[in-house]
TrEMBL record:
Pfam families: Zea_mays_MuDR. Belongs to the HEBP family. InterPro entries: Reg_factor_effector_dom_sf, SOUL_heme-bd, Zea_mays_MuDR. Residues 1-34 form the signal peptide. It comes from the Eukaryota. This is Uncharacterized protein. Keywords: Signal.
Length: 357
């Protein structure tokens, strides 16, 4: 009987087998184990959240001729992985980051079908100056300015069918939320799928659907206006407070108590305005907070109060009652501005501002 020979193993091409093995070693098993773009959650629902990202740089692999999300992601990532392994003009080895982001680009494929672009976030050390990829890889850096996205998490493997289903669920959730009209239709992609897990991980896989929102524009304008309005009110209250304190005859009476009361209001406003501006600058790098939105006009001049008085201080109790009523109206307006600002930023109004008012 002839001796049975063991079949000769046929090796996979190195270009395909090696990346899969190395990806298993390099891609973290859990989200958070690798460098990832930072963001601030500005709102959270039960099935999605709204995030604000700062400026970021990604390396992008366009795949315009591939009609399948799954195939496009594999082929695009293969080119990106070669780039990480040193296929760049600097021969730099770049650490793996997360997520692998596949964006659906409407009308960019054959016969205006959907196409895909696969991206990897570049580590912080390469954000300012990414290594230039070798020309044959057909990669290019994508510089994304600060932007907002709605993100929905889902588990399992991201495949052609379920990524569409998850996108539809996110669209439905958005349509029932305050962000129903905030989808950024000027975005280059209809939606993106972020994958955080190694391809060899079976249980506990982490994926997300991302949809770009225009909400960051309204956040920016709303917060600018809130800060501007609080400063204006604080200045106005300081001016009227000075007028109140200039009347010694009523210093211990109703107006005098109001003057001390307004000092506390001004202190609280200054503290809150400072905290809000610092927080906004950290969350929205590159935004000029000193130039208000073009649609916000401030025609009020606190000095007008002094000019109208023309240096004369009346002791007419009816006039001071009118001043007192005006101050209460201004104080309520300040409180509304402050409460709205805290709501937008996700702060607890009562904890943020010691309510001595």
């Amino acid at each position: 009987m002839a001796k049975q020979q063991n079949p000769i193993p046929i090796p996979m091409p190195l270009s395909l087998s090696l990346p899969l093995v190395l990806v298993a070693l390099l891609l973290p098993a859990a989200r958070g184990a690798a460098e990832t773009p930072q963001y601030t959650t500005v709102h959270a629902e039960s099935d999605f959240e709204v995030r604000l990202y700062g400026d970021t740089v990604w390396m992008s692999a366009p795949t315009p001729d591939i009609p399948s999300f799954h195939v496009a992601t594999k082929l695009g990532f293969h080119r990106l992985f070669q780039y990480l392994m040193g296929a760049n003009l600097n021969s730099s080895r770049i650490r793996m980051t997360t997520p692998v982001l596949t964006s659906v680009v409407p009308g960019a494929g054959p016969l205006r079908s959907s196409a895909y672009s696969v991206r990897l976030y570049l580590p912080a050390k390469f954000q300012a100056s990414p290594p230039v990829p070798l020309p044959e890889l057909n990669l290019h850096p994508d510089r994304w300015p600060g932007h907002c996205v709605a993100a929905r998490s889902f588990s399992g493997r991201a495949r052609d069918k379920n990524v569409v289903e998850e996108a539809e669920k996110l669209a439905m959730s958005l349509s029932r939320s305050p962000w129903a009209n905030s989808t950024d239709y000027s975005s280059k992609s209809a939606y993106s799928v972020a994958q955080y897990s190694s391809p060899f991980r079976i249980i506990g896989r982490v994926n997300e659907e991302h949809v770009d929102l225009k909400y960051h524009i309204s956040v920016k304008n709303s917060l600018r206006y809130a800060i501007q309005e609080m400063r204006r009110q604080s200045s106005l209250l300081r001016t009227i407070n000075g007028l109140c304190c200039s009347i010694p005859e009523v210093e211990g009476g109703k107006v005098g108590k109001l003057a001390g009361h307004l000092k506390e209001v001004c202190k609280g406003l200054e503290k809150t305005s400072s905290i809000c501006q610092e927080d906004l600058e950290n969350k929205c790098p590159g935004w000029d907070l000193h130039n208000p939105p073009s649609d916000v006009e401030d025609n009020s001049h606190p000095s007008d109060v002094e000019d109208a008085m023309d240096g004369y201080v009346s002791e007419d109790p009816e006039l001071w009652q009118m001043v007192f009523d005006d101050l209460q109206w201004e104080e309520n307006k300040v409180a509304v501005s402050l409460a709205e600002h805290c709501r937008i930023m996700g702060y607890d109004y009562d904890q943020m501002f010691d309510r001595t008012i």
